[in-house]
## 1
Amino acid sequence: MEVLIENEAGFCFGVVSAINTCEQSLEKYGEIYCLGELVHNTIEINRLEKRGLKIVEVKDLEGLKDCRVMIRAHGEPPSTYALAKRNNIEIIDATCPIVLKLQKDVKKAYEQCAMSDGQIVIFGKKGHAEVIGLCGQTDNTAIVISKVEEIERIDFSKAVYLFSQTTKNKEEFENLVSIIGQRMRENNNDNFFPTNSICKRMASRTKTLLDFADSVDAVLFVSGKHSSNGTYLYEFCRQHKEATYFISDKGDIDLEEIKKYNRIGISGATSTPMWLMEEIRDYVLASSETK
Ligand code: SF4
């Protein structure tokens, strides 16, 4: 049996950088808090918790004082920074530079909206940390839509500044741009300003995953159960290749099932650590040798 790990699988640079920042801070201070899960991967979180990381929610911030709190790659709204300042909390900011730039762009567009009575529309998942951070740039006035059916909430007679959560699907975004554009034209309104703010890494990820799936007999897709990126990529891969299995750890692998394949591929979400995929590869190889 041959077991391969996809080259493009695993942490994106935003998450790698956040984990490095976290490890360096733990080394330096011994204990730090992090707002929400640093990555949507329980195994990686457990590893960092053993080194002193404490996961808290924004609502817990009110009760914290004189400590260090890390902001993860997804970013946070301005209200979080303001609260930290009030409570003398030192922020360790690991917001991904791409998300940071998007926050700035949304804020700038919001300022333009104030002059032109326009609307900020964000294509994203309601309640997702990155989307909360983006909405915060607009005093929470942005219209968040997660699917085309929700566009009726937009006033097509006014200016529309459209952005996307960085991890959304490129084709869905392009479809949305085309439909909103059509509605704007029907209203004789050419004040439509779409910005494709999908992370380039995400935009190319589906293609690299499918190419990889084509090169193997079966795919073990490794992801935390709560990772939206992981769930999406897994479903995407499975629609293309039926022999795709969702696993979070080696305990989820059905060894009897996979022994019918000669060439097994291991891939994962942007929140899946490489060490975990390597551990799974070694486990599958060792199990196949003992048969
Ligand atoms: S997916 Fe892209 S935008 Fe999101 S954290 Fe990773 S590098 Fe940054």
Note: The chain has a mean pLDDT of 94.
## 2
Amino acid sequence: MNFYDFQIVFQEVPGEISLCFYITGCPLSCDGCHSPFLWNKDKGDELKLSLYTSLLEKYQAIASCVVFMGGEWEQGTLIDYLKIAQSHGFKTCLYTGQDWIPKSIANHLDYVKLGPWVAEKGGLDQITTNQQFIDLKTKTNINHLFLKPQYHD
Ligand code: SF4
């Protein structure tokens, strides 16, 4: 499983400081994709177990969640890495462009973002979006936590 980038992010999971891994090999080719550099699975570097665990340990004290941007196409490795994150005390989240994920992956997630990018519908911060952000522990859609406040005169 190769990753293109690693970042500490604050908005991808409401209420969590997250360690975010951008996994290459996305097969979905959404029209207008903002991250086409994630399509080629040979791009980036292998997310070696030693690097992954060292990052989890390094940021364990300040971050609370691990997010994978993709990677569901390498199900076995993804599940192993989700389990490792959980064993280090992190919550887990997957951003996928698919409308569903197998239970074998969902069983190791606290949150999932479902749905492809559709430019005219917008992302999670738009009320028109086709995407869904689900809290899997409560089985509720929490898209409303991404909406920007609207101010009126
Ligand atoms: S799922 Fe995300 S990365 Fe993959 S093609 Fe769609 S927008 Fe791009």
Note: The pocket of iron/sulfur cluster is lined by residues 26, 28-30, 33, 35, 38, 97, 116-117 (CB under 6 Å).
